[in-house]
Amino acid sequence: MSHVEDYLAISESYCRWLGDLRWCPTGEAVEYACDGPEIGLTFAMGAEISLFLEGFHSASRPISFSLILHLLRLLGLGPRSPRSQSLSTLEKAFREWGLPLRNAGALCARLCRDVPPALDPPNLAELTLTLTRPSAEPLGETRTGVAVLPPFDPPSFERLITQRISELTSDELRHWLRYGRGPIHEGVAERVAAIPRPRTLSAILAALESRPRLAGTMSLAVHLAGGLTLPPRRLAPATLPMGGYSDVATRGQPERILPTQLALEGDEFVRRFAEHELLFYQREEPRAPVPEEVVVVLDQGVLTWGTVRLVLGAAAMALGRQAERRKIPFSIAATSQEGNAVDPAQLSDEELGGLLESSDLSPHPGLTLERILESSGESRLRDIVLLTHPRTLNDPSVVAAARRMDSLTRLFAVSVDREGHVALSEISRGSAILRSTLRVELARDNDRTPAHASRNSEVGGWQGEVESPGFPFALGALSPIPDALFDFDEAGEWVVFTGQQGILHACRIDGTQVEMLPRVVLEGRPLSRVESVVGVGGGVIVVGKCGTAHVLGHYDFTTRRCNVHSLGIELANISEWSYLRSHEALVARNPLGPVFALDLRAEAKEWRFPPLQPTDPVSNRAALAFKHALKHLPDHALVVPCLLPLPAHGSALRLHESTGAIDIQNDAGVVKTIVPTTDGRPSLRGAQIRSTRRGGDVIAAAIGDSTRTSLLFFSTSSFRVLGTVPCTLKARGFAVSADGRYFARKSGERHLEVRAIAGESTPFYVSPRGRTHQRVNVMLSRSALVISVGEYIHLIRWDQGVLELSQGRGDRASYLACLAQRFAGQQNHLIPATRGHDLPSKDPKRFLASCSVLVLSVLVDFIGQVSVFDRSNQLVCMFYVFRDQLAGWMPDGTRMGAANLTGGAATEDGQARFWAALRAASEIEGSQSL
C-alpha cells in the first residue's frame, strides 16, 4: 500500500468519538458511518481537506490524519455541537472570513506546535493529487492503509487546542485566518512606521524586506535580476521614414533581401544564408521613443503558497527595479484585488506590504489576467508579466485570456515551483515560449530541521546520542553479515544491516547511496553488540548492549537524528521485536507471547506497558499495542500447527505435512486452502514452515525439509503463491518490505541482495563488499601527516600555500627513510602512531593506535579511519586510504577524494577548506614551515 493511503487511513477507535468517520467508496469525501440520521452525510470533501493540509504543511510538519479530522471538526465542519467558549470563538472567526481553509490550516499548525509529527509523511504533491483527483471507479472498500493511532486521545487533544486558543486574542485569530500568519509585533510595527516614506521605487520595495513574510526577498531579487530581464522590443515604424533604407546588413527579414542576392545559384544562396553572408536592407529606426510600461500580475491563489510566494515577490521586486532603471512606469495587479493595477509609489508601506502578502482561494489567475489585457493601454506599449505557478500556464482560462492581447502588448510569465525552479516565458497565441531558466535554493517553511535534513551525510550529519567521530565514509560490509540482523525501513527505501563491532550499514535499494551510521552511545559506551534490527516508520530501531546495559536506538532518516533509550532490564527472555505501525509502537516478544510494548513517540518515563513499577505512568498507545499483540500472531511467527485451530484475529499459515495443503488466513478472518504443486505433485508434502515474515498482503515463509529449503510468497488477498525462490540459508535470514514488494536475503557472507517479490528472478540491488586494510601505519608532525597501507604511502602536508597531497609506492622502509632525512634537524619531525592512545575518553576497543605532536592528535580505528583532533580534543577532519585512493571528510560535510569512498561528489573547494582547518588546528601562521 502506498504511503499516501497509509497516511489517509482513519483510525477507527479515535474517529468514533468524532461521529464514526470513514472515507466514502469513491474516496472523494469523508462521511459519517454511524447509525442514526447522520449516516452517509458528508463531513468534508477531499479538496477541502487538501487545502487545509496545504496550509498546515506550510507552517509545520504534518501530524496524524485523525488529528487533522479533529481540527476540521473544531473549525465547524460537520454537524454543529456544543463547544467550549474558546472553540466557539474559533468556529465563529473561521466562518466570518468565508472559510479560508488554507489559512485555517496555518493557524492550526501553530496551535499544534507541541504535537508530535507523523512519522515518514507522504509528499504533499502526491497527497494533494490523491485528494483532488476524482476516482474513475469505486474503491470497493474504504481506504485500506494502516491507520496510525494518534499520540493523544480526543479529550486530551481538545483540551490542548482549547488552551492554545485561549492564548490568542480575537484580533490575532482573525489576522491568522485572513493572512495565514500572525500579526507583526507592535515594536516592529512602530519601527517600520517611523521610517520616512521612500521616494524611489527601489527604496519602496527595499522597505518591504522588514516584513516577516517578505524577509529575504531583496537578496532573492538580486539573484533573479539577470535571469528575468525582458527582451527589448523592435522599434519598427509602420511606414518608411524619410530616407527609406539606411544601410545594408547580414541579418533581416526575407522581404528585405537585396535583389542582387536572388540571382545567386541555389546552393550558393543557402550557403550564404547559413553563414550569415546574405545581404539585407536595413531600415532607419525611429528617432522619437515610444512610451512603455510594465504591469506585473501576481497570482495569489491556491498554488502559490509559502516559498513560491516568496520567490514571486522577489521577482516582482526585480522587475520593478528594472523598470526604474529604464525610467518607465511600473504597476502591480494582484488576484486578491480583483485585477486592479496600482502604482506602488501611490501606496503606503503597510498597504503595499498587505497587497503582496494577501492570499485568496482563486484556482487560477485567468480572470485577473483577462481584465488587465482588456484594459486600455492609451496607445502605450505594455509588457505584462504574469507571476504564477507552472501548472496555471496550461489552464484553459489562462490560455483563453492570453489570446486577448492587442498589437501593442507583450505577455510574459515567470513561473516558480516549490523546488525553486524559475522560468521566464513569452506567451504568444496562448502558447508559452521558454526564454530563460534558473534555480534558487529554498528552505522549506514547514521543516523544523535545516533543509529537510537531506538523506545523506551532508552538513550536520547525524544528531543525538551517537558517537563522535562516527563512520562518515561509504564502505560496504567489512565482516560477515549476521543471518537475522537486517531489515527494511517502513517505507521500503533503505535496507539496514549490522557488521563488525555493531557498525550499521544503510543502503538505499535503488543503489544511489551507501552510508555507515554512527553507533548509539550511552554513558560514554557505544553500542557494540547488536541483538535486533527492526524497520519502523521513517527509519530503523536497533536494540543491543552498551557495556552491560540494554539500550534502544531509534534512527530517523527524515530528521537525521538518533534517539537513545535505556531499557533498564535484562532481555535474556526476549526472542523477537516487532513493529506496529498502527500504534507506532515496538513489541518485545518471547515464545509464549508479548512481554511488553513501547510507545516510540512517548516520553521514556511512560512509554512502557506493562510498567516496571505499578505507580509509573503508562502511555495509552503502549497499552493498546500490547492488547493488540495479545490477539495477533507476530509477523515472524504466523505459523499454526496443523492440529491446532487458526486464531480468531489476524493472518496465519497452517501447513498439512501429510497432504502438502496450506491454509491461508487474512486479517479479515477469511481462510482458503491451496496445494502448491511441482510437476503435478504437491511440492510441500513432508515439509515444515521454519519462519515467516509479512509485508502488506504478502506472507513470506521459509519452508523445507532436511534436504532443501525454499522461500514461498503467499498473497492473502488473492490466496495464491506469488513466487518461489530456492534458499540454502538459515530460515531467519530474510526480510520483507512493509508494502510487500521486495525481499532481502544474504547472497554471500558479505553481500545482501534485494529482489522484487513479483518480478524478475535476478536481484536489482546487491550491497557492496567493504574494502579496508588490516593494518594502517600513521606518522604525524605539526604540519604533515603520512598514512601508509601495504606498498602505498600518502603524504598530506599543509605548511605551504595549498594543501599538498602526494603519493608513493614501493619499498615503504626506503620511502620513510627518505622522509625522515627530509625532516631531519627540524623541530617538528614525524612521530609514528603506536598501539594504545593518549585519549582515555575514547573507545579503547575501537581505536587501536594514536600519537600526539604539540597541539594535534591522531587516532586510528579498527577499520582504518584516521581522525585528527585539535588542542581542545575537537575533531578537525578524518581520512581514509585504500591502496592508491585517499578520501577526506570534515564535520561540516566537506568531502575530498574518491566518490566511491566518500559517498558523494567532492566539495568544490574541499582541499582549500582542509588546508585552512588543519592550519588553524596546528596554530600555524604566515609561511611557517616544517
Automatic annotation (TrEMBL):
Upper taxonomic lineage: Bacteria, Pseudomonadati, Planctomycetota, Planctomycetia, Isosphaerales
Q: Which residues form the MoxR-vWA-beta-propeller ternary system domain?
A: 857-919
Instruction: Tell me the domain of life.
Output: Bacteria
The protein's name in its UniProt record: MoxR-vWA-beta-propeller ternary system domain-containing protein
